[in-house]
Amino acid sequence: MALSWNEIKDRAVKFSKEWKDTTNEEADAKPFLDAFFDVFGITRKKIGTFEHRVKKLSDAGFLF
């Protein structure tokens, strides 16, 4: 079921209050994104992945 604009607004206000004092980006990155997507009624599984590891040049067959 789609969320109404009022429900999204209420969730967004709650989200902003819960996360306003967050200071550890590395530890809170994934929970933050999960909570943010939840504002709109979206789960991480619907989106798939939103981070990919960076390949090292040494893994790509380049030698410097």
Give the N-to-C terminal Cα separation.
54 Å
With helices defined by DSSP (H or I, 4 residues minimum), what is the helix count?
Answer: 3
Beta percentage is under 5%
Helicity, in percent?
40-55%
Principal-axes geometry comes out as flat
Question: What structural class is derived from the secondary structure elements?
Answer: mainly alpha
The total domain count is 1
Give start-end ranges of low-pLDDT stretches: none
Question: Your description of this structure?
Answer:
The chain contains three helices and no strands. By secondary structure, the protein is mainly α. The chain has one domain (5-60). Helix 1 packs antiparallel against helix 2 (25-39). The longest helix is centred in the N-terminal third of the chain and has 15 residues, at 5-19. The radius of gyration is 17 Å and the shape is flat. The termini are far apart. The model has no long low-confidence stretch (mean pLDDT 84).
